Amino acid sequence: MRGSDIKKNHDKLPQNRLKTGVAYMESLEGKLLDENIEKNIKCLKTIFEKCSDIIFREFVFAQNEQIKLALIYTDGLADKGQVSDQIMRALALEVPMAVPGRVITKAQALEFIKERGLCIHQIKETNKVGEVVNAILSGDTVLLVDGHDTAIINGARGWEARAITDPEAEPTVRGPRESFVESLRVNTSLLRRKIKNPNLKIESFQVGRLSTTDVAIAYLEGVANPAIIKEVKTRIERIKIDAILETGYIEELIEDEPWSPFPTVNHTEKPDRVAAMLLEGRIAIFVDGTPFVLTVPSLMVEFLHASEDYYERFIFTSAVRIVRYLAAFASLVLPSLYIAIVSYHHELLPTALLLSVAAQREKVPYPAFFEVFLMELVFEVLREAGIRLPRPIGQAISIVGALVLGDSAVRAGFVAEATIIVVAFTGISSFTFHYSASISFRLLRFFLMILSGTLGIFGLTIGISAICIHLCGLRSFGVPYLSPVVPTAYSDLKDVVIRAPWWAMVANPRSIPGHNKKRESFGMKPMPPENGE
Amino acid sequence: MKKKVWLAICIFIIANFMSGCWSRRELNEVAIVLGAGIDAIDNDRIRLTVQVAIPMAFASGQESMGGKKQAASMEVSSDGATIEEAERYLAMKIPREIYWGHCVALIIGENMAKKGVRTITDFFERDREPRETMWVMVAKGTAEDFLKTGSILEKTSSQAVGLLTRMKTGYAVKLFEFVEMLAEEGIQPAAAGVRVVEVNEASDESQQAETGGRRVEMAGTALFKEDRMVGWLDADETRGLMWLKGQNLKGIITVPAPDEPDKMVSIRVKRNAREIKAESVDSIPTFKVKIRVEGDMIEQQSMGDLSEPEKIKKINDSMAAEIRKRAQSALRKAQDDYGVDVFGFGQAYHRRFKNEWKDIKHNWDDKFKQAKVEIQVEANVREMGLLTKRPGTNK
Amino acid sequence: MLEKEIIDDMQAVFLMVNLVIPTVLLGVPAVTIGFAKRDAWISALLATAAGIFIGRLISSIIEKFPGKTIFEVMEELLGRLFGKIAGALFAWWILHTCSGIAREYGEFLEVAIMPDTPLIIFSVAAIIVSAYAVKSGFEVMARFNILFVLVIILFLLISALSYANARFDRMLPMFETRPQDVLKGALVPLAWMGEIVVFSVFSPALKANCSIRKINDVSVLLIGAFFLVGIMGVLLVFGAEHASAMMYPVYNQVRIISLANFLERLDYLIFMSWAIGGIIKIGIFYFALVIGISWLFGISDYRPIVFPVGIVIASLSMFIHEGVGDELRFLMGTFPFYSIIIFEVGIPLLLWLASIIKGRGHGA
Q: Of A179, B339, C75, C199, which sits with the fewest C-beta atoms within 10 Å of its C-beta?
């Protein structure tokens, strides 16, 4: 009997908790503040029961000691200096100095405090308990005044945040060195500094039933396509989830093709890149608490481009891009090609090379497929370890691991030298382009390796075809993923494998359906005077 | 339900594919054939000799460690009625699968060549592995003996002849060219000749022992009538053949200097081309062959200043005479001695007189014997190297 | 039926080109050269001219019924019963040809690269990938095809390297072959060119402002050009006698490329183009067949029948021919007459006559 009771309770428990959690905020929805400050404080204390970081500071108004005041804020989220100096000191000490002799009645108190008492740049009033709770949790400081059913929300936020640093995931040689941080406001300010135009709209949402995370979408009105903006909004508003801790949550919840290995939503941590995306008519999604910003719609080619491509001179950039495309291709097919050639199509190697590879493989006991597969796995382990290990030892370990493992594996006769070369080159190639695209390439590489291990070059070709067909069918917010290559937008081809000089990129990309057709005037090609006058 | 069907299909496909790897052959499971030799033996049977590479010998940096140099190849022979049959017997002697994809040279023994080669080219064209670009050569003596001869610079005799042909010093044909000559009317096939010679040039005794004091080299050209070999051209006549066929050729023409006939001038051939014009004079086929040669002077022994135009003209003339002499000698041998049109005069005649050709194509070789061939040579010296004249000539 | 998907005229042209080219380029030059010898180029030109006639015939019918597949046109012009019969025959021809292609597809791969692999693996693999493309829709197919065109261009550039071995006098003397042989040589490529009739199934997917006649003309000319280049390449490199004995002369043509002693052994270019080109060709026929069958049985969405039809194609491809000899006899002897007379000219001509008599459609 007892056992089943426990079970019953056990079953109930999480559900109840969840219900209180999610429904709690909803249950506060219609609740209003009372005129009696004691009641209000009691109500809030019940709400914030066992929340040791919520501070209730009760004091009396200097002008009229009958009037009780209460400050409620979250320790660590509110700027303590401001709270003590600009609110407490003002109300508890300095108000009489400013208006000596004047007596404020309870009824006048709220107006007076708002107008003369607070030295805070942004205040807001509310009479809803839900909003008060929200404000406290967001870092605002709430001031309750006795005798009023209205609370004043002081925007005195201030918490410890990471300083703006170099972009870690997308380092550059040339170009802005700042990257986004975890704070949404800082991030939008970084963007605003790039595009000083009122048409840069930043709309806010709150997503997450438990976390109520701030989410903002940014776009350039008149440039971005309204239909896509609307689609983004609908998709974000559709999200009903307990918490959004990273943009990755949103990414997976708004993708067009959730089963695809390819990312159809781009992300970056560089404000300049986001600005460039917005200028081409894309939409950015910011999430509070993460330095990564999503941009949609995204195309396949974006993942092979770097922001630096637009800062370096176009000749160099074009050359580098060709290398990057080749590297991307190599990172996808090189191991499978190696398997196909070594175990099926020996005739594709020149005689001298074949003999030397054959000599290397003489001592290797496993088929090429198994060997490459194994080494690729080893490489993935090393890479993963390199990321997870504490930074100071991470690099050392991965280099030593790679060297020692590779060398010993060859000496012990597990693998051929050629395999090591192929695997190492493939691994390095996959670092030449966007990280999330390289993840999908990494996965597909294994898929292709299996195919070429069973059917040789035919299998490889079949696999590549299947991938291409898949890519042709992909869309990102209605935009074909492979555009501008297919469907072909000829004017956009100037910025795919090569990059045209800036003075030639007059038209904005047509593959992103936007409104701003031209991004510069014609005739921007520099024309220095002929004879050096 | 739908999902289950999908799952079943996937499992079926994967199981099918994974159990496969049908055509897989790892590199250490194949015997890489570098050269194949074919000899005729008794009772219409053929002997197939393959030169199989021993991969370990090709590993980088292995030789010095091992101390003793490992043999780079092994040669195995086997008999059969067809090549494929012989290959099956070979499979009993070689523990690995025979792989033809890198066969550099197809060496035909002299006996085989005389018996007819049409029966053996088929396999090398029909099978997917042997490549049409392998060199076809006729060995003086047996192909087996030829393949068993080592090479010092290259590791195997097949590679050695492969590279020798690349130097374009002698006439060389690839399999697809040879087959085309066999198939087309109005031309008879010719193939490079190779032979084994005794030498004492290797200074190192171990090398001597290794190659058995023997070496392979190019040796003229084998001429065919239909698919049977009828005779040889020597090295000089081979050059004549190449002039007449318009084949690219890297070679030196040495002519007497214009002022001092006992001193010589050497000219390196840079470009050569030929043009055949067919005519029918009293229904006797007549051909005008125009050979154009360009070359650079690379050596001269005389003290004269050869940069003067009239002297160059003299050199040009003697060059032309020399080339004409070579061409004539090749022509005479092919036309008079063997009566085979290896130059493609018949094709030229066919191109010009397509109606008359129908009547004579069946006995073209006889007609060819009566044909008149007129050879015109236009030779030119272009460059003179880094010297204009011999230093000290004005003394 | 076909969903509202739109392809532009360039995509249509290249779809049509790749609907024909993959198998033509590999197998047909040898046959044409076998008949017409050195004058094979005349056959190619003749076939192209006749191909333009077929293209015009088809476009003159289709353009009268915008937004309708050829099946629906049949029903409208010939009445319900005869329309369905003609449509069923046409669908049968597509099925037959499609399995024939799947067979050829596997055969080349088996002969040229993987002799030990069962034939069915190649057909099944290609059909699976094609099925994926068919399921993804016609737009996706058109886009994938454009990607492949890039591969073809690369391939053409590289196969041009074999012209290092070309000798123009291999074409001489001209006009030696008897005219009837030249015509015979033209018949086989014409039968292949006539396969563009399959594309009339997809005419509703074309953009509204495309001229079908122009698309057909340009496609046939392009196909003719590709074919001519293929024939000339083989002829100039190998000579007529040698080339006509080969099964896949273009493959040999690429195999002999050897430039500067390192640009050689480029066979895989052919494998890859063949593997992808075959998928596209099978895919288009497959798609047409699926649409035809769903029309025949009045199914509104074609997607559910994609896999069953694929299984039919794959299994038919296994017993359609007994061996290569049988297959060659059919492809070179029966197939040209069978397809040209009944399906590529016969049925279109019938429809054209019917449209004239009935005076239906826009133009009439």
A: B339
Structure tokens at C186: 């033209």
Q: Sort out which chain B residues have CB atoms less than 8 A from A455's CB and list them.
A: 17, 20
- Do B185 and B218 belong to one domain? yes
Q: Answer yes or no: do C144 and A350 touch at CB < 8 A.
A: no
- Closest Cβ opposite residue B129 in set A342, A347, A355: A347
Verify whether the Cβ–Cβ distance B58 to A347 is below 8 Å: no
* Rounded Cα–Cα distance for residues C73 and C295 (Å): 12
Residue among B250, B229, B136 nearest B191 (CA): B136
**Which of B233, B264, B294 is the endpoint of a domain?**
B233
Compute the nearest-CA separation of A483 from chain C (Å): 10
ipTM: 0.92
- Judge whether A177 and A307 are in contact, CB under 8 Å: no
* B66 and B208 co-located in one domain: yes
Q: How many angstroms separate the CA of residue B23 from the nearest CA in chain C?
A: 5
Residues in chain C closer than 8 A to B133 (CB atoms): 255-256, 258, 264
- Give the best residue of C168, C256, C264 to mutate against chain B (max B CB count within 10 A): C256
- Is the domain of B250 the same as that of B201? no
Contact A472 C271 (CB under 8 A): no
Alpha-carbon distance B228 to B223, whole Å?
8
In chain A, where the domains are located: 13-154, 184-298, 310-480
pLDDT per residue as tens digits for the range B60-105? 654 444 445 567 788 889 998 888 899 888 888 888 888 988 888 8
Rounded to a whole number, what is the distance in Å from the CA of A342 to chain B's nearest CA? 6
User: Is residue B307 a part of any domain in this protein?
Assistant: yes
Rounded to the nearest angstrom, the minimum Cα separation between A465 and chain C is 7
Q: Please give the full DSSP string across B159-183, using - where no structure is assigned.
A: HHHHHHHHTTSS--EEHHHHHHHHH
Same domain, B258 and B362: yes
Are B53 and A455 inside 8 Å of each other by CB?
A: no
C38: closest CA among B132, B247, B357, B174?
B357
Determine the pLDDT at residue B23: 74
Question: CA of B17 to nearest chain A CA: how many angstroms apart?
Answer: 6
CB contact under 8 A, A359 and B62: yes
> Is the Cβ of C164 closer than 8 Å to some Cβ of chain B?
no
Closest Cα to residue B50, out of B73, B26, B17?
B73
C-alpha angle A486-A489-A492 in degrees, rounded to nearest 5: 115
Question: Looking at the domain assignment, is residue B17 inside a domain?
Answer: no
Range 324-383 of B in CB contact (< 8 A) with C: 347, 350-352, 354
For residue A492, give the nearest of A474, A510, A468 by alpha carbon: A510
Determine the residue of chain B that is closest to A459 in CA distance. Answer: B17
Residue-wise pLDDT for C33-67, tens only, equals 988 888 899 999 999 999 999 999 988 888 888 88
CB A378, CB A392: distance < 8 Å = no
DSSP annotation of A256: S
**Each residue's pLDDT tens digit, B271-280:** 888 888 888 8
pLDDT at A326 over 80: yes
C-alpha to C-alpha distance for C52 and C16, rounded to whole angstroms = 13
Full residue range of the structural domain in which residue B77 is found: 26-233
Same domain, B226 and B284: no
Total domains in chain B come to 2
- Residue C41 pairs in a beta bridge with none
Catalogue the E-assigned strands of C38-169.
none
Secondary structure (3-state) at B376: strand
The verdict on whether omega for the bond into residue C173 sits within 30 degrees of 0, i.e. cis, is yes
Three-state DSSP at C28 gives helix
- Chain C residue with minimal CA distance to B181? C242
Q: Do B21 and A453 touch (CB under 8 A)?
A: yes
3-state secondary structure of C74: helix
Say what angle helices A271-279 and A184-194 make with each other, to 10 degrees.
Answer: 60
